[in-house]
Amino acid sequence: MCVIITYNIIDLPCSYNKKGMKDNEQISMKITKKTRVFITGCGGMLGEAVHAVWSAVATVKCTDIDTRSPFISYGDVRDHADMKRQIDEFNPDLIIHLAAHTSLEYCEVQKDDAFKTNTESTKNLADIAKERDIPMIYISTAGIYDGKKEFYTEDDKPNPISVYGQSKYDGELYVLENLQKYYVFRAGWMMGGGAAKDKKFVAKVMKQIIEGTKELNVVDDKLGTPTYTYDFAKNMLFVVTNGSYGLYNMICDGSCSRYDVAREIVKILGRTDIKVNKVTSEYFKEEYFAPRPASEKLIPKRLKDNGLYIMRPWKECLNEYIQKQWLSYAETAGSFSFA
Ligand SMILES: NC(=O)c1ccc[n+]([C@@H]2O[C@H](COP(=O)([O-])OP(=O)(O)OC[C@H]3O[C@@H](n4cnc5c(N)ncnc54)[C@H](OP(=O)(O)O)[C@@H]3O)[C@@H](O)[C@H]2O)c1
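^ thats the input. predicted complex w/ NAP below
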């Protein structure tokens, strides 16, 4: 079936645009099954949702170094020549660049690989997009801020405090400074991928519960904005088909602490027998030694100002994520009971 997404031209204020590009020259993309989309890092948490949402409306080529999913073919973004070869061969209309090392601890220890993967590969892909005169989507992170403020809009100046944050910010800056046809979406605490792919906080909590813990120790001094992969992938598509090129914060509605997320998980599961203890980051300083901002709360100002914000509240998304992608796994994986 050929799905045609209708599109509107949204005039963003000039300050959102790259130099030399007038508002009325920015026309949203029309996405049909004929639109060819090349995706890097599509085997990860966000990739699972991006594949599901985008393959329904466009022709996608999904690559990653992790080829466990049947829709993935091998592609290492650190191999610049091979990326160029694969992209030339596929002849895409759009590149979606998701690949990254996302473990903050790995990036602190393996600094060279972090910059090679997160920064240098982004520069290569941006150069390829520019040469082919096609748009590129880059996923940035709330982790580029130092956390000294509580809330951040797109107008706040980043100041990364970790290798991961710096490597992602360097990639973002290259895209902003060298491309005209770009979408940079800054995400928050990613929720998605289920037991097979989720490497982040929800998985860490769920795995402890599945193993039978009756007590969770969770930090309440780290604040942020959860970001559900399916809403994110849909909002990406919505901006590409209805909005303008630019930089956008894209996170679920609302904000919270890690402790609030853990409490909500226990509530969704109906597990009043599980106690959630508040601890400070000091408690986990050995395991999570990479510096993390005290607050990574993003405000999706540009999406909201331009009628482009379609993400739902984080609690609604967390509920859907757990119901759809964790419950059946949890019920077959050990001592878990769902009240
Ligand atoms: N996770 C978050 O909380 C978060 C927050 C903000 C922004 N982001 C950004 O969102 C994007 C998607 O991340 P995600 O949340 O889906 O994390 P993810 O699950 O770690 O996905 C990233 C994928 O990239 C792959 N990858 C690593 N090195 C690669 C290479 N050299 N070539 C090709 N693929 C490679 C990873 O494979 P391996 O698993 O084998 O390493 C993984 O499958 C990233 O750009 C990330 O920086 C993530």
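Residues 14-194+226-254+298-312 form a domain with the Rossmann fold fold (CATH 3.40.50.720).
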